[in-house]
Specification:
Aldehyde Dehydrogenase, Chain A, domain 2, 15 helices, 432 residues, 17 strands, 2 domains, homodimer, Aldehyde Dehydrogenase, Chain A, domain 1
């Protein structure tokens, strides 16, 4: 089947999956866990072939590590499935209920978005997570994985689809595509696919955003800041700065720029400098920073650069307002941190920094779906609409307005003597 | 100022408007109401010039009616402002609170989207409504109105902006643009404008959607259906069909296609035929319909056509499932109605029809922000993400994740002996 046919089949399946009961979906999740264990030898063999081929192709060690899918990963995936089974069904929840008039009741009820296209990196465990999140939330899903994981992804998709069949899920709710042409095809199908979730490099996500009319949920840049305010506790500020920069440098929620209030710069900078240098961090400082600590001079491009490496841009600012301006100008709306002794200044920072995640006295690295208690994460969004920051199952939901009447027509509520609406809040769920 | 400068100024203003207190915003709404009354003579004079020019240009009577902005409209606008003042401030509401660990608390707090671009039709009262909705929700707004209303829009914008200045709103939160080139300019500013709301014809909205990377909230087609099920009460079904089609034909929530279950067709069709013909409706029926009532033959294009006129496509279907399929194939995801004597079949219809609004035993014409109790309406959305159906102030909001710590770093929650997260629900609002 080509991309268009897969998407058509997925759209048809989505209608039925949206109406599937909680029991059916949970049974399918159980079946998937069972099948992953039952087929583990085949899965591990496929993964070994992917690993061997990738080693021959000199894939880097961190990427090889992400590619590995072994018994421990299968156990972890099954634990994830069990915790998903325990979560309440997000479909069919009544968000509001309003009597418009006697016998005319309006309900706002959650429902799946429809067909989700997910383009993900080489981790095969992401395939299990994403497809099970889509299943529980009632969404059909078209997956495009990394070519390094081709064999692992293929067998995982087969195992999951077959388990779904046995549980009575509509055929075609899950499909795997493999080529770049398939991705191009996906982006053109705005009448069949409702949302694209691209995970990957900045340039890749930007490319997706620029080449489709389908809404895209994700983030390109992750230029995160730590601002050390004038009355910050220097020891705490240094720990947070080091953790935000160094705990895992290659990820979107790592800090790229350290902003320091001028009143604390002479005390704080030497201290953090020592800690950063000990971790192997190269500092690119503004002129004022260079007068306090030893560093390479920062260029204006540094403020707008996601280093994703052991490099940190450092700038001294005059005030809280100057820090906020810097972040709103050069940041990417992802995660920004203030370290301050004054909670009121923390709140001022949060009220004025236009980012998905704003943190007070803690590391930028907490910005993550698991740490946020969302369970698995679909991705992190820097969008300004729908879902922002770490996105769990909630980001795969939308709602439908359901109006229950008894022959009501609008003509009675118009003209010379219109019937008034009661608009009375109801405290009851949609009568399903 | 050109479009880029206006948008830059709006973005800067949006940061401050997002942090403006409820009192400041309500004071501004009061000032606007006061100023509309104080400047009413000037406003009416400007509107008279617009009306006279438009009459000379032979604008149609319904458009002239929409263009008129008289004393009654000013009074109505002021009532709208008063009711907006009474509404709770949608900014800063805590949607959830979670303890991640001792002293590390995560809050999901509502905030404005940022800068909204609204392109609206000739009604000057829409300008007052939209700008006041944006103000209360803390969003900056760039408006493009119809050229017929140029003078009225200009003075209304001045009056509102000046009133905002007096109340202490940030300069530039509101701006009016006037040319088509400005709209083109708007669509290119995806780094400054966060959401476009286009109101107008199908072709116009489609054009907007195809020419911007900015998220668009709205609807192109409004192909709404009424399905009369086998056990519908024929008298009720006829009333609902006539109201859905005829109560106001030129609007997006008017019915375009009537689907009739085959078991009821011979009883129902002659009855509704008579009522529709009495209203001057032309019926385009499928072959089976033509065997029961006098009508023009329907072509396949009719199923996908938004007539927006006294024309109704009619088709006999074999089953509830066939009706659902027809709607999901030809509909536009706007508003679809089932008339049935069986609520279970109503719920089945709602569970399977993938539309923003699904109604049971009432007219499609109820699909409207005022009737839904949302207060004023920004527009009606057939999007699958963010906001669906009639969109009130809630559709102009998003949220921000706020994490309050006390020196917490991620290194402590990683490695060989990671600290566990508590992920304990908190029952308290963000401490602002």
């Amino acid at each position: 089947m080509d991309m268009q046919q897969l998407a058509q089949r997925a759209k048809a399946a989505a209608i039925h999956l949206a109406a599937a009961g909680t029991d059916t979906k949970n049974r399918a999740l159980e079946e998937i866990a069972r099948a992953l264990k039952a087929r583990s030898a085949d899965i591990l063999a496929a993964n070994t072939r992917d690993m061997e081929r990738s080693e021959q192709q000199r894939l880097s060690a961190p990427l090889l590590k992400r590619l590995r899918f072994d018994d421990a990963k299968i156990t972890e995936a099954c634990l994830g499935l069990q915790s998903l089974i325990r979560l309440p069904d997000p479909v069919g929840m009544t968000l509001s209920a309003l009597e418009l008039d006697q016998g005319l009741e309006l309900y706002k009820v959650t429902c799946p978005i429809g067909v989700i296209g997910v383009i993900f990196e080489s981790r095969p465990d992401a395939l299990v997570q994403i497809s099970s999140l889509c299943l529980k939330s009632g969404n059909a899903v078209l997956l495009k994985g990394g070519s390094e994981a081709a064999e692992t992804n293929r067998i995982l998709t087969d195992v999951i689809a077959e388990a779904g069949d046995r549980a009575g899920l509509p055929n075609g709710w899950l499909a795997l595509v493999e080529t770049r042409e398939d991705v191009t095809g996906m982006l053109a199908l705005d009448r069949l696919i409702d949302l694209i979730v691209p995970r990957g490099s900045n340039a890749f996500v930007q490319h997706i955003m620029n080449h489709t009319n389908i809404p895209v949920l994700g983030h390109a840049d992750g230029i995160c800041h730590v601002f050390v305010d004038r009355d910050a506790e220097p020891e705490m500020a240094a720990r947070i700065a080091v953790d935000s920069k160094c705990q895992y440098v290659a990820v979107c929620n790592a800090a790229e720029t350290l902003l320091v209030h001028e009143d604390i710069a002479e005390i704080f900078l030497p201290r953090v400098h020592q800690a950063l240098v000990a971790k192997g961090v190269e500092i690119r400082g503004c002129n004022r920073t260079a007068a306090v600590i030893d560093c390479r001079p920062a260029t204006p491009e540094d403020w707008a650069t996601e280093h994703l490496d052991l490099t940190l841009s450092v700038r001294i600012v005059d005030s809280l307002e100057a820090a906020i301006d810097h972040i709103n100008t050069y940041g990417s709306g992802h995660t920004d941190v203030i370290v301050s002794g004054d909670p009121d200044r923390g709140v001022r920072f949060m009220n004025h920094v236009d980012s998905a995640d704003v943190f007070y006295n803690c590391s930028s690295r907490f910005s993550d779906g698991f740490r946020f208690g969302l369970g698995a994460e679909v991705g992190i969004s820097t969008n300004k609409i729908h879902a922002r920051g770490p996105v769990g199952m909630e980001g795969l939901m939308i709602y439908q307005w359901r109006l229950m009447g008894d022959g009501h027509i609008v003509a009675d509520y118009s003209g010379q003597t219109p019937r008034p609406f009661t608009h009375r809040k109801l405290d009851k769920p949609f009568p399903a």
